[in-house]
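Supplementary Methods, section 5.1.

A reviewer requested that the exact input to the structure prediction be made available. We therefore reproduce it here, unchanged from the version used in the analyses.
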Amino acid sequence: MGALTLLITGATGYVGRATVAEARARGHRVVAVTRNAAAIPADWQADNGIEVLECDLSEGPGLAPACAAADVVLHLAASMSGDAAAHARDTLAATERLLAAMPADGRLVLLGSIAVYDMGRATAGDMITEATPLLEDDSPADTYARSKRAQERLVQASNIAQTILRAGAIFGPGRLWNAHVGLRVGGGVLRMASGGQIPLVHIATCTKALVNAAEQPAQAPINLIDEDLPDRKRFLAALVPAPRFVLPLNWRWVLPLGWLAARMRGEDRLPGLLRPAVLRARFLPVSYDNSRMRAALGLRQPQGFEALMHAAQDGDKA
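The structure derived from this sequence is encoded token-by-token as follows.
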């Protein structure tokens, strides 16, 4: 395929910067959308293949001409934390305005999340695939998961040609920890002992998948998950330096406390590790399938888990 013009939202974020680099390495022209011009890397200014568009997607002005000129829009921008209002603005309103700005014959690649799967209907030992049931509107899942599911609905309801990539927990240099492991306490870790796999995807796999999807026709949703997935014990063993202490705690022991607290205070007012739905979503012992990613996007995990973790940590020290 020849060079494309790719409009990338969230371009100065963790995944965005790496995706811009991957796209440029393949010779594609990039329109990098950011609402924070101060975060633009210095090397972008010297690259005439990168055009920076400073724009708050939740407000939307200036998007339509850029979208019309792009061959494919890669929508990476979304709220990763914050309250419901932040997700409504930075994930949902931003997506609505982006879709409204795109031409009818446009094409979209959405960076979604495996958080959209309804783990309340899963059981221990299940394999999570693209056919696993998705969250319902009234799900007690956390705000992030509900907003990503609502974002998918917005995209799927549009007439835009689309590919939705449901990423696992993205890791790489500068981003090693994720909430599927447990809780960090001082220099130690309260490890949720549950068995099953941590749904990881390395940043290199994620960015290659995004650009591969842009280079191909629209496809059904695809899980972005590595093949060599560790359990929590193996994950912690790969950290250097090792945590000062690791205290295993069976996640099911926390459930009764969460149910009691939810009845007394309401589940939405509880911290994540005391919310039964969040506990189940993060720690139910399941495995994950990436066969569609391998078949549709031609991707394999570049190295084993330990090699990727050690390289990521070496990158942090550099």
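The mean pLDDT is 89. These observations are discussed further in the main text.
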